[in-house]
Amino acid sequence: MSTRRTILIVSADDLIWEPITADLKDIGWSVELIHEAHPGATRSQSDDVSCAVVSDGDLGDCVRDFLASFGVMPPIPVVAVVRDSDVSTTVDAMRLGAFTVIENKGDNVHNAVLGAIERAVPLGGAPIKGDPRDLLIRSHDSPLNTMLDVIPQIAKSDAPVLVTGESGTGKELFARTIHNLSPRADGPFIPVNCAAIPDQLLESELFGYVKGAFTGAHADRDGQFQAADGGTIFLDEIGEMPLQMQVKLLRVLQDKMVTPVGSTKPKAVDFRVVAATNRNLENEVKEGTFREDLFYRLSVLPMHIPPLRERPTDIPVLIDAFMAEQNRVNQTQLSGVTRETLKVMQNYEWPGNVRELQNIMERVAILKRVGFVELEDLPERFFGDHPPPPQMGLYVPSEGMDMAEALSKLETNLLKQALQKADGNKAQAARLLGLNRTTLVEKVKRLKLDED
Ligand SMILES: Nc1ncnc2c1ncn2[C@@H]1O[C@H](COP(=O)(O)OP(=O)(O)OP(=O)(O)O)[C@@H](O)[C@H]1O
Ligand SMILES: [Mg+2]
To answer: Into how many domains does the chain fold?
Structure first.
């Protein structure tokens, strides 16, 4: 977790940095501006510098001097802004450890620098909510936090809880957490998916049966309620329960007595019920498909989990948690997501909510294995009609890299995108890339892109 919060700007030229500095401050950065005249000053920076932006002014080689002053590699990402990005300047800056190189063409600098900083500065994790037993629920500064605050109270009570929320929002996780924090924690937690059990079997599944109750009932059998004795029964997808079962369930909740199918002797069972649904039960009540009395009985303690798209501040902590999980389970070394990737993730709709995010992190871990998650690692649905912008800044890992290979990959990637956009029309693809048609054709041939 990083506490660094300063961007260091090294430049002789104050003017162009004023608006960039203002923007950086707006999004919470401190900015330290020093002048290029003394490259030695760069060594005395405060400890909390997260990223440096260094710009070649009129005096020339500021970028080079700055990068070279670190010896092998700068300890922080360095965004280099050069007057003239001919190949040798760029290659030089990259070789000396620049995170990315931007050519100063006036208008473009502002956005290019802000974008580069976003990519360069890895996300710091946010603190995980406190009680050791609810460590599983990750949330940071979102509507979920107020819910987490009341969970211990809810857990202490024995009243029914109704957890609602879209698919994948964490209803079962909340139910388990309530159980784990309750005085019943040492007792069983019995999940029952009401949607998965055929109507005619649901009663015997829930309440058990006695020998001879129906063909095939060769011996007495306990149901899930009896199994939950001393613990919690989790009635998942309660909205799917048929009406005639709802009547029986209501009676069981009121009497705390369970009558097995075929028996006339109710048995006392000590259970607590947590129910969940992704349906809107109030509407179902209005439509007559869910009993009003059962609805009120179950929703003594209602908990609605908002969809992930309504709590974007939870996304970074969830990413951290799932990434750590993947790194542990799959022996991968993912280090974070770039800022621009996070931004796209925070603007995405998340129809599958937290489960979808978990699946994506698993997919990325398998495909990528090492490094920062970038835009191109996200599935296409994240971009709607707009494909991800090409990755311009390449991260130089401390163990070194093959720059020629990286640049060739970048080239291939851009060529492929342009060809795709142009539906294979080479003249148009060349226009998109600012190349001559013949240059593009040559490159396509050399990189064997025609064969795809
Ligand atoms: N706040 C959270 N912190 C950490 N993990 C979470 C969080 N919310 C959900 N998860 C994880 O996301 C996955 C989906 O959660 P869960 O199964 O509880 O959702 P659900 O609402 O029951 O979904 P469904 O309606 O599809 O049954 C689980 O692996 C769960 O552990
Ligand atoms: Mg569930």
So the answer is: 3
Candidate from 161, 163, 354 with most ligand 1 atoms within 8 A of CB, to mutate: 354
Residue 169, ligand 1, Cβ within 6 A:
yes
174: in domain: yes
Residues 6 or more apart whose Cβ sits within 8 Å of residue 9: 17, 20, 21, 31, 32, 33, 34, 52, 53, 54, 55
Same domain, yes or no, for 34 and 102? yes
Ligand 1 atom with the shortest distance to the CA of 144: 1
Residues 6+ apart with CB under 8 A from 228: 187, 188, 189, 190, 269, 271
Among all bound ligands, the one having the nearest atom to the CA of 303 is: 1
- Where in the sequence is the domain holding 10, given as residue range(s)? 6-120
Nearest to 177 by CA among 219, 138, 123: 138
Would 96 be classed as within a structural domain? yes
| Among 32-41, 169-178, 220-229, 345-354, the least confident range | 32-41
Within a domain: 138: no
Give residue 234 CA to ligand 2 midpoint distance, Å: 10
96 and 38 belong to one structural domain: yes
The pTM (predicted TM-score) of the whole model is 0.62
Residue 103 lies in a domain: yes
Average pLDDT over all residues of the chain: 84
What is the whole-number distance in angstroms between the Cα of residue 86 and the centre of ligand 2?
56
CATH at residue 70: 3.40.50.2300
Rounding to the nearest 10 degrees, give the CA dihedral for residues 257, 261, 263, 264.
Answer: 50
**Mean predicted confidence (pLDDT) in 342-362:** 94
